[in-house]
Amino acid sequence: MAAYITVEYVVTDYTAFSEFSTRTTAAVEAHGGRYLVDCEVEVLDGDWSSERMVIVEFEDGDAARAWLDSPAYRELRVLRQKAAKASVVFAEGV
């Protein structure tokens, strides 16, 4: 079953975030992930405080978790925490 990592964030350091973004793409692709969404969001109803959203699809939950736990992403996570306020969510789906 496909698995998804969804990230919503507000960038606080654009220089660091640019480096994070560039390096993360290679790490995602190395684990078989593909970006479905990577853009600014428009709030249509309700409360939402983030300015951007990313959704990455993986073949299954094991692949998604392997990416999140990989040495490459552990290093990038520190950079992301410096560059943005973010929430990362895992879900399995169709």
Q: Please describe the biggest sheet, giving its number of strands, its sense, and whether it closes into a barrel.
A: 4 strands, antiparallel
- Class by alpha and beta content: alpha+beta
CATH topology: Alpha-Beta Plaits
Strand coverage percent: 25-35%
What is the count of distinct domains?
Answer: 1
Cα shape: globular
Number of helices: 3
Runs with pLDDT <50, length 5+? none
CATH class: Alpha Beta
What is the strand arrangement across the widest sheet? 2-3-1-4
Helical content, roughly? Answer: 40-55%
Question: What this model shows, in words?
Answer:
The mean pLDDT is 94. The protein has helices at residues 14-30, 61-69, 71-83, and strands spanning 3-11, 34-40, 52-58, 84-92. Helix 1 packs antiparallel against helix 3. The chain has a single domain (3-85), classed as Alpha-Beta Plaits (2-Layer Sandwich). A four-stranded antiparallel beta sheet has the order 2-3-1-4. By secondary structure, the protein is an alpha+beta fold. The chain is built from three helices and four strands. It is globular, with a radius of gyration of 13 Å.
